[in-house]
């Protein structure tokens, strides 16, 4: 029996750079597991849609699908949109087995990716000294999701022995610019911002713009198509595939 297909399910964006980054990330996953059928899909705003991809897999004879939500926080999209999309797919295809895994989440291993992206930004800006950091994320109306970002920020700050503030591009304070200004108000002048986003788009662009206007010395690129992110997708898939096996 063939292994379950893997669908990497992203939110989607009107910014074409976002879909391009997801494509590059999924290609990283394919390179690591060429034996698997691996597809990308989007909840909204980008193509292909999740339902289109499911139809394609069913037509190709797949009876089991593992969905890995490419989401960093366990908020509305993870709790509502993903289950709703899967329910619709199973109603349209009786007998099809679909298992959604845990989201990508805020793995501490992603801090290494953040550091790599930030080092590149600091090198480009020719910055050698830092006295504060800001961890910029999307933000959510779900306080637990924002608290998870704040916890990761504390871990990151402890690692670098620097003060760190979590900032949010929407739905919750402080914004990246406010966080930078607060540090400058304490007399700190070498403040860098790491972008805790999976892909480029309006929110990371806005966070970067506000941070630089407030005096940040550098802002990193999002996590992007990094091998560590690809390995995390495969780790989530492995758990989901096991959970599809009848007990």
Could you describe the 3D structure shown?
The protein has 247 residues and is of the alpha/beta class. It folds into two domains: 5-105 and 225-243, Rossmann fold (3-Layer(aba) Sandwich); 110-219, Rossmann fold (3-Layer(aba) Sandwich). Helix content is 48%, strand content 16%. Helix 3 links the parallel strand 3 and strand 4. The protein starts with a strand and ends with a helix.
What keywords describe this structure?
alpha/beta, four-stranded parallel sheet, 8 helices, 2 domains, Rossmann fold, 247 residues, 48% helix
Q: Which CATH top level class of the largest domain fits? A: Alpha Beta
Molecular shape: elongated
The secondary-structure element order is: EHEHEHEHEHEHEHEH
Tell me the distance between the termini.
Answer: 17 Å
Structural class computed from helices and strand pairing? alpha/beta
**Estimated share of beta-strand residues:** 15-25%
Question: What is this structure, in a nutshell?
Answer:
With about 250 residues, this protein is of the alpha/beta class. It contains eight helices and eight strands.
Element layout with pairings:
Elements: E1 5-10, H1 16-32, E2 38-42, H2 50-59, E3 64-69, H3 76-92, E4 97-100, H4 110-125, E5 132-137, H5 143-160, E6 164-168, H6 176-185, E7 191-196, H7 202-214, E8 218-219, H8 227-243
Parallel strand pairs: 1-2, 1-3, 3-4, 5-6, 5-7, 7-8
Helix pairs in contact: 1-8, 6-7
